[in-house]
Amino acid sequence: ESLPFLEACRQLKVEVGPQRALFMHLTLVPYIATAGEIKTKP
């Protein structure tokens, strides 16, 4: 499922050059207010 996304990233790196491309992986870590904790597992 992520292959088209990764290919787009690869193409961007080729187009702008490796010195001008930065890829950062972020993830959502939701905070459950009623439980007072963060949810790290599904």
Task: Describe what is shown at a glance.
The chain has one helix at 3-16; strands at 31-32, 37-38.
Protein architecture, described:
The protein is an alpha+beta fold. It has one domain (3-38). 33% of the residues lie in helices and 10% in strands. It contains one helix and two strands, in the order αββ. It has a two-stranded antiparallel sheet. The longest helix has 14 residues, at 3-16. The chain starts with a helix and ends with a strand.
Unreliable runs, pLDDT <50, ≥5 residues?
none
How many β-strand stretches?
2
Structural class: alpha+beta
Strand ordering within the main sheet: 1-2
Tell me the helix content: 25-40%
Tally of DSSP helical segments: 1
Order of helices and strands: HEE
* Form type: elongated
What profile does the largest beta sheet have?
2 strands, antiparallel
In terms of DSSP E residues, the strand content is 5-15%
Task: Determine the N-to-C terminus distance.
Answer: 19 Å
Whole-number count of domains = 1
Rounded to an integer, what's the Rg over CA atoms? 17 Å
**Average pLDDT figure:** 92
List the helices and strands and how they pair.
Blueprint: H1 3-16, E1 31-32, E2 37-38
Antiparallel strand pairs: 1-2
Give descriptors for this structure.
33% helix; two-stranded antiparallel sheet; alpha+beta; 42 residues
